[in-house]
Amino acid sequence: MGNRVAREDFEWVYTDQPHADRRKEILAKYPEIKSLMGPDPRLKWIVCSMVAIQFLAFYLVKDLPWKWVLFWTYVFGSCVNHSMTLAIHEISHNTAFGNNRAKWNRLFAIFANLPVGLPYSASFKRYHLDHHRYLGGDGVDVDIPTDFEGWFFCTRFRKLIWIIFQPLFYAIRPLCINPKPISQLELLNVAVQFTFNALLYWIWGVKPVVYMMMGSMLGMGLHPISGHFIAEHYMFLKGHETYSYYGSLNLLTFNVGYHNEHHDFPSIPGCRLPMVKKIAAEYYEDLPCYTSWVKVLYDFIMDDELSPYSRVKRRLKGDIKQE
User: Fold this and answer.
1) Could you give the 3-state DSSP secondary structure of residue 13?
2) Of 10, 35, 175, 309, which one has the greatest count of Cβ atoms within 10 A?
């Protein structure tokens, strides 16, 4: 568990990200894909149902013994909360109400944020759009680990610790790489979330709050679903910076596993991404992909060639227009 990773820096490239060119090629050949763009009318109802389920869970755990609170936190609450973060990811692309109602999407994301416990939906949208525009961009894409993460988490044991505490690093990283002025929407997100957390504690006590907060931390740490954090862009094969996952957990994660397809067409809702792959099959069938996020996590920890440094990174040129 003490072998050091051989990498000492990111994989620097001097080419543009591949998704823009592939999108142009696919749309030229298959213009019918444009019909897949637009909001998913089911998304808002699915999200409301998930929020209601977690509210019911808050009520049910309030009188349970602590051992069962912790059990259900990991087995159930962590899955729902991680799934909710991916619903917020969907909403960040305006797939709940469409581009013409951008503010509705942002306010709805704050509502979806409630059972997660940590106010992040407003900030996530700002940084996530930069991730799509400037994939791997030095100083802009905060999905790229910091130099400290790459340098320090360089053994199997340290990589395990890094995965367990992924939520913490995702929260701190923007402040280190690309800090932005706080917006009014972010202040609203914080005020609404902390008010909700306080009301939950006042009405039903500490156990639902622990269930909520720990569910989010565990679900985005050492958890099968969190394999998508590593699977999406960590360079398991040289020359490939985005990977798709075609497994059953897509059912719980709004098809976020279809990640090449998502970066090619970010305005297409997750529920329609399999149709993109079906229509333009020749563009995706030869790309490396995964069928198990658990195996991705295991391989990342155990492979001494992989570390937080295993990311493609590029220096951006020209005008950079951030959210």
Assistant:
1) strand
2) 309
